[in-house]
Amino acid sequence: VDHLHNFIFFRFSMGFVDSIIAKYVATVVGYLVVSRPFLNLSDPRHMHSTHSELLEDYYQSGRMLLRMSQALGRIVLAGREMTRLSG
User: Fold this and answer.
1) Count of alpha carbons within 13 Å of 49, Cβ hemisphere only?
2) Which of 30, 39, 34 is nearest to 68 (CA)?
3) DSSP labels for the chain?
4) 73-80: Cβ within 8 A, 24+ apart
5) What per-residue confidence (pLDDT) applies to 6?
6) Radius of gyration in angstroms for the set of CA atoms belonging to the chain, rounded to a whole number
7) What confidence tens digit (pLDDT) does each residue in 21-72 have?
């Protein structure tokens, strides 16, 4: 009974950590990486861009990173499912 209790607690905590990393941490890190060039005013990529072009570029980059983080989250969850399947 103690072993089963520890096993269930371990699976719950690992699932919780996997879900947080897959959903939130990857998204926040992605947005931080995308925002660095936009916060640097001397970046040559955006020196001659208008405000609307900057926002459009930021929005497109953010959406791509959001999709990438969702894909990485799916990979993490698929790895967990493969581990369960192999067991």
Assistant:
1) 17
2) 30
3) -HHHHHHHHHHHHHHHHHHHIIIIIHHHHHHHHHHHHHH-TT-GGGTT--HHHHHHHHHHHHHHHHHHHHHHHHHHHHHHHHHHHH-
4) 73/21, 73/22, 73/23, 73/26, 74/22, 76/18, 76/21, 76/22, 77/18, 77/22, 80/14, 80/15, 80/18
5) 93
6) 19
7) 777 777 787 778 777 777 776 777 777 778 788 788 878 887 887 788 778 7
Question: The whole model's pTM is what?
Answer: 0.55
Distance CA 77, CA 56 (A): 32
**Do residues 33 and 65 touch, judged by C-beta distance below 8 A?**
yes
**Residue 8: both structure tokens together:** 């269930």
How many whole angstroms separate alpha carbon 51 and alpha carbon 81?
45
